[in-house]
Description:
Layout: H1 16-29, H2 31-42, E1 60-66, E2 69-76, E3 81-86, H3 97-105, E4 109-114, H4 128-144, E5 148-155, H5 157-163, H6 167-170, E6 174-178, H7 184-194, H8 199-213, E7 233-238, H9 246-252, E8 259-263, H10 275-286
Parallel strand pairs: 3-4, 3-5, 5-6, 6-7, 7-8
Antiparallel strand pairs: 1-2, 2-4
Amino acid sequence: xxxxxxxxxxxxxxxxxxxxxxxxxxxxxxxxxxxxxxxxxxxxxxxxxxxxxxxxxxxxxxxxxxxxxxxxxxxxxxxxxxxxxxxxxxxxxxxxxxxxxxxxxxxxxxxxxxxxxxxxxxxxxxxxxxxxxxxxxxxxxxxxxxxxxxxxxxxxxxxxxxxxxxxxxxxxxxxxxxxxxxxxxxxxxxxxxxxxxxxxxxxxxxxxxxxxxxxxxxxxxxxxxxxxxxxxxxxxxxxxxxxxxxxxxxxxxxxxxxxxxxxxxxxxxxxxxxxxxxxxxxxxxxx
Length: 287
């Protein structure tokens, strides 16, 4: 059974009051069982695992170890100047195909990540801290191999993970953050509640993961990372995004140096292939 935080057609688990009470009771009475159930239900992305790029072929592929499995990295181009692209929940790197093609035309190589439990990576379960771990590992791997990482282009949950990276890993890199769900955890709790699942179950899962990684989940909230915003951070957001509220990102960037490029009518994901968005990314990369 899979649960998608960024999809409007959500499964509802029977009568809400009953399922909410049951999931709450299991969390209280049997924490181990509820943790296993919660991970299977809430950390299993509903996304396409088998895909091919339509017009591009990677020049190399790499598989990088993480605590939850191997991330799959497709490399396009042979330039030493590298851009990393990171998808969001229940997605894969093929959504960046138009952006990758454009970045190559500007003289960059691109490392396109399939996070664990997504696309061609291994594993069945993942979470935000594993996204952060994968991005950290990817940056360190390519910098150790003498690549100059010029930018990170990230979408949705990938953007949240990017802003959670250590400040030293973001230094001297442009950040292009697309459809960023500023209130990421509020969105998670809202979706869980609407599906008729107890919020206590999600809290239990988040606290367990945080303990494993040595970070409390509330420290991952983007309100804790405003100090990482600079004129090197570029946000792209659609006014009609159903999942990542436009007003939230607009308020988040008040009094900040970061730039906000606004689109209309593209929603949460279609921005990735939009010509105006791609032209804006080109402008960012050449400025």
